[in-house]
Amino acid sequence: MFKSLLRFSLQHRLYSERVAWYKDDKLFVFLPRDTDGDVRAEVWRGDRQSSRKVFERKYNKKNTSKVLTQKHLAFSVDFHRLASDWLMSITPTWFFSYGEDFKKSGYGHTNLSWLKRKENNRAVLNHFRFLVAWLRSIDTDDLFSEKGKRDSFLSFGDCVALKGAPFLDETLWEPLPDESEHDDPPSIQKLFG
Asked: What is the pLDDT of residues 113-131, one digit of tens each?
């Protein structure tokens, strides 16, 4: 019951940042703001300042008036009680939509599996690091800030590393196959390849 309250509070807080809760998929999905156009990028600071695309709309190459796909950075969360603290685990992923109301694409699973095959653990870690930094950056408002966005009791702290899991050196694994001739997602390959 309390986990539902935490999730609802997070949902309420992220709504003002144009991050929508997709209940059926149990995902928080970045949507474009009115001023973003075809790309929404968020500035964040990890080791250095950089920018991350969290939404991108791609058009058909032959008919540029038709939207081919809309890709959103998304994430799921779960809440865990550890000692006397509540912690939130974040799992980054992607979401594909169509239309101006961003309905889930029927081809999204194909695009998602293609994208996941191309990403390695370092890419997923960077998505995670971005999400942590972004959540902390929106947490800078307080109850007395001029914006008044801080109507949630959630706050975001540092990452917690849990001890006990073995370290796996990804550089020792076989590298991902080079699919440079297939840089477009499968839906584009089927249409034009």
From this structure: 988 888 888 889 899 999 9
